[in-house]
Design a protein that fits this description.
Order of helices and strands: HHHHEEEEHEHEHEHH
Helix content: 40-55%
Radius of gyration: 21 Å
Largest sheet: 5 strands, mixed
Number of strands: 7
Strand order of the largest sheet: 5-2-3-6-7
CATH topology of the largest domain: GTP Cyclohydrolase I, domain 2
Bound molecules: zinc ion
Structural class: alpha+beta
Shape: elongated
CATH superfamily of the largest domain: GTP cyclohydrolase I, C-terminal domain/NADPH-dependent 7-cyano-7-deazaguanine reductase, N-terminal domain
Oligomer: single chain
Number of helices: 9
Number of domains: 2
CATH class of the largest domain: Alpha Beta
């Protein structure tokens, strides 16, 4: 016994998450059908374990559904006497567009003006991942990150900018092969005060190589 079948037998004594194994088996079956229906031979050597690998990959790429952003930030919020802008920029982001389930990827910049509370810095990239590892549109991803920061620490304002390239546009050669899509979500002071917004935008532009 080889491959997926052997793996399933070996992983049988794992009663903790039977629904995961069930989902993985269903995904393997579905991907096998995809391979057949594009005219390939799922039995040839290179493709034999591909459904199994694809099932694991898609579960990894959508694991954000298993994560709760509020829980992630819980325990990482700190009271501070600091009221200058906090910026975490150039956070690498990989997501899947919900229209084609093809990757879009790029950089996320997150800033906020604290009002007595800050978020542990390492949690901001984790927060980005939690939302990015789902089926997304870039606009919603941008807003979800901003809203999560807003809800967690109720700062004076939040700004989120995402610059991304979409493989569904690039690979299919539809248009704009080299252009990036930029989205932003500005809340509170970042929306209302031009100076705050400009400080954020100039800080994320500084030191940036061409493209990104
Ligand atoms: Zn797409």
């Amino acid at each position: 016994m080889k491959g997926a079948a052997a793996k399933r037998v070996m992983s049988m004594p794992k009663p903790l998450k039977p629904e995961v194994d069930k989902a993985e088996a269903a995904l393997e079956k579905a991907y096998l059908e995809v391979i057949e229906n594009i005219g390939e031979d799922p039995e040839r050597d290179g493709l034999k374990r591909t459904p199994e690998r694809m099932a694991k990959a898609i579960q990894f790429l959508t694991r954000g559904y298993q994560e709760d952003p509020a829980q992630l930030l819980h325990g990482a919020l700190f009271e501070v006497d600091y009221d200058e802008m906090v910026i975490v920029k150039d956070i690498e982001m990989f997501s899947l567009c919900e229209h084609h389930m093809l990757p879009f990827f790029g950089k996320v910049h997150v800033a906020y003006l604290p009002k007595g509370k800050v978020i542990g810095l390492s949690k901001i990239p984790r927060l980005v991942d939690t939302f990015a590892r789902r089926l997304q549109v870039q606009e919603r991803l941008t807003k979800q990150i901003a809203d999560a920061v807003q809800q967690a620490i109720e700062p004076l304002g939040v700004g989120v900018v995402i610059e991304a390239r979409h493989l569904c546009m690039m690979m299919r050669g539809v248009e704009k092969q080299h252009s990036a899509t930029v989205t932003s979500s500005m809340l509170g002071a970042f929306r209302e005060e031009q100076q705050t917004r400009e400080e954020f935008l100039s800080l994320i532009r500084s030191g940036k190589p061409n493209g990104f």
